[in-house]
Specification:
12 helices, four-stranded antiparallel beta sheet, alpha/beta, Rossmann fold, six-stranded mixed beta sheet, about 350 residues
């Protein structure tokens, strides 16, 4: 080992190292030059996706080490599918040091719920289902009515109740900064007070991949290992890992209707307005959520390769193109997050 400090611990300058014969005129260590010439050093450079994967796994292990009762939010959507794969890489062959949880509105796409249950059974982990319908039945929330009614906002109360009931002090989520401007403001480890609310002006610094998970009783953190990923990164990772996703992410024929420039699936949960008519179209979903506020896009992308190509060419974010809940106001997402939303 080549020393670069003196007996007092002072770091030597490069000139001092050269005079001592430790470094050559170019500042390189001769011993290292000899090793390189002998071909004995191999510098492994991570690809873009490998670097993102490494960061996310580091975050998940840090949270598992720092916090006592984490939970991973798993809806069966593409981002939570990637989170599940990262958790496998972080902790297998052991069991996950946390359960999975889904906040179920009762108005989810049946294909996604079927995939969720099957995937959880395959990996043999525990799934907690927090039900919005139960929150309605117990008068914790009041269901909206009318053609534009949605259970999306009601999820916040159900989520916070579940976190309190199970004593969770950290919740992994699949949110990414490229999705929406409020999410772009948020840290990887995002602090929530004892009411579950978020203060965008009072976030903790995150320097050199150091995360402060210190919280008081009743408080918790939301953790977003995919913060630095983009939608394209997610799809390229799914393709590289050959991960199964619900079939509604691929082009298929579906009965839809047009509202506010978006295509919504017809269902028992959505009431058509005057002048709206259902028709059949080839569509796919970029994001999956409550059927009442999640739109489809017209598409012929029927496999992973063509989906990746389609996402690489688009210039509209997935939430901007397909989520009605983000169009309620200019600050719709931030308002929900401040109140405790995902």
């Amino acid at each position: 080992m080549i020393a670069s400090s003196d007996s007092d611990g002072r770091h030597l300058t490069m000139d001092e190292l050269r005079r001592a014969g430790v470094a050559n005129a170019n500042g390189a260590h001769p011993a290292m030059d000899e090793v390189r010439r002998a071909g004995a050093t191999t510098i492994r450079r991570l690809s873009h996706l490998q670097a993102l994967e490494s960061e996310a796994i580091h975050v998940m292990r840090e949270v598992a080490a720092e916090l006592e009762r984490p939970v991973l939010l798993f809806s069966g959507g593409k981002d939570s599918i990637v989170l599940l794969r990262l958790a496998e890489k972080a902790f297998r062959p052991a069991r996950f040091p946390f359960p999975l949880m889904h906040v179920d509105t009762g108005h989810n796409f049946p294909e996604v719920i079927e995939y969720r249950d099957r995937r959880v059974a395959e990996i043999g982990e525990r799934l907690i289902v927090a039900s919005v319908q139960e929150s309605i039945d117990t008068k914790r929330v009041v269901e909206e009515t009318g053609p534009r009614a949605s259970r999306n906002r009601l999820q916040t109360t159900t989520l916070l109740d579940a976190i309190e009931e199970h004593g969770f002090d950290a919740a992994f989520g699949g949110a990414r900064r490229d999705e929406e401007r409020a999410r772009a403001k948020e840290r990887i480890m995002s602090f929530r007070d004892d009411f579950g609310t978020w203060d965008p002006r009072g976030q903790r610094p995150e320097l050199w991949n150091l995360y402060n998970g210190r919280i008081a009783r009743g408080e918790h953190v939301r953790v977003f290992p995919l913060s630095n990923w983009t939608e394209l990164d997610v799809w390229q990772y799914i393709a590289e890992e050959q991960l199964e996703v619900p079939n509604i992410y691929f082009a298929h024929e579906r009965e839809v209707f047009r509202r506010d420039g978006m295509l919504y699936a017809t269902s028992e949960h959505v009431e058509l307005m005057d002048g709206e008519e259902a028709f059949s179209a080839s569509v796919r979903y970029r994001t999956v959520g409550d059927m009442s506020c999640t739109g489809a896009v017209e598409s012929s992308a029927a496999d992973l390769e063509t989906v990746v190509d389609e996402i690489a060419a688009t210039r509209i974010t997935e939430r901007g193109e397909t989520r009605a809940d983000d169009r309620v106001s200019e600050a719709a997402m931030e308002d929900r997050k401040v109140a405790g939303y995902f």
